[in-house]
Amino acid sequence: MKTYNKIQELQNELQAQRNQGKTIGFVPTMGALHQGHISLVHQARAACDIVVVSIFVNPIQFNNPEDLKKYPRTYEADAKLLEEATCDYIFYPTVGEMYPEKVTKKYDFGNLETVMEGAFREGHFNGVGVVVNKLFEIVNADKAFFGKKDFQQLAIIRSLVEIENLSVEIIAGETMRECDGLAMSSRNVRLTEEERTFAPEIFSTLNWVKENMENHSPIELMEVAMKRLSVHFKPEYFQIVDGLSLQMINSWDETNYPVACVAAHLGQVRLIDNIELNR
Ligand code: PAF
């Protein structure tokens, strides 16, 4: 495994591999890797000849400077995990390498970006779009792998691929969970011991919603879920949406693909999760 900090050097290496007919799988990350990321690396390993993982804490997707400052940076541990997962190349650029000039690009993701995360984190998805497009340009992968935990991000990236007319295939990986159901996230390490005991209530609430679909409307379930979560969390939203348009639904017959999505603060940590409700 080799680490590259410079765009040109990585590109030269990847071009040499492509010239030999090798296919490239790409897993973009912000580091602080956990088994959720590693499962994507395994998917990439199984599907492609060469696996590239980027580690870049992208400043322009953080709307909260405190969150950016506190975002865990664990390059050594990440590199060890990636070596074990038989990754071929890490791309680990500086902010200056990625953004030599001020970023002015503005994407229009339509209604996908005005709801849920988009409504609470201004500019977040534009920052994600800009960095992912830049990373796609650099790596020029055949397939790129993203986790379903960031359900809205996945929809935004599929939209980005259409807007930019890219040929990369986007592959979704299942959310990896701790034994008690908590979705794996780089932010989990910031939970206190007590908060960690409450954290699985997000997944149990999502499951409770899934189990009660037959007898309740989406609106009723969203209300009760918000109440349940309010005991230990400060929930930002709990929405049942159409899994493609991401717009909230009022009745089950509005979609064949209902998904419940949640964001909630537990102490200083903002957690997100979701569940596909397909009956
Ligand atoms: O999901 C993430 O870790 C980030 O949003 C991504 C896709 C690597 C872009 O910075």
**Low-confidence segments:** none
What share of the residues does DSSP label as strand, in percent? 15-25%
Give the number of DSSP strands: 9
Bound compounds: pantoate
The count of helical stretches stands at: 11
- Let me know the largest β-sheet: 6 strands, parallel
Count the domains.
2
Identify the overall geometry: globular
Q: Quick one: CATH class of the largest domain?
A: Alpha Beta
What name does the CATH topology of the largest domain carry? Rossmann fold
Task: Please state the structural category.
Answer: alpha/beta
Mean pLDDT: 97
Terminal Cα span:
43 Å
User: Strand-and-helix sequence, N→C?
Assistant: EHEHEHHEHHHEHEHHHEEE
Please give the order of strands in the largest beta sheet.
Answer: 1-4-3-2-5-6
Q: What this model shows, in words?
A:
Helix 7 (124-139) crosses helix 8 (151-163) and helix 10 (201-211) packs antiparallel against helix 11. The chain has helices at 7-19, 35-47, 65-70, 75-84, 95-98, 117-120, 124-139, 151-163, 193-198, 201-211, 218-230; strands at 2-4, 24-29, 50-55, 89-91, 143-147, 169-173, 234-242, 258-266, 269-276. It folds into 2 domains: 2-173, 3-Layer(aba) Sandwich (Rossmann fold); 186-274, Pantoate--beta-alanine Ligase, Chain: A,domain 2, CATH 3.30.1300.10. It is an alpha/beta fold. The chain is globular. The strands form 2 sheets. A 6-stranded parallel β-sheet has the order 1-4-3-2-5-6, sandwiched between helices. A 3-stranded antiparallel β-sheet has the order 7-8-9, with helices on one face. Pantoate binds at residues 28-30, 58, 61, 128, 131-132, 150, 153. The site of pantoate (PAF) has 10 residues, from strand 2 and helix 7.
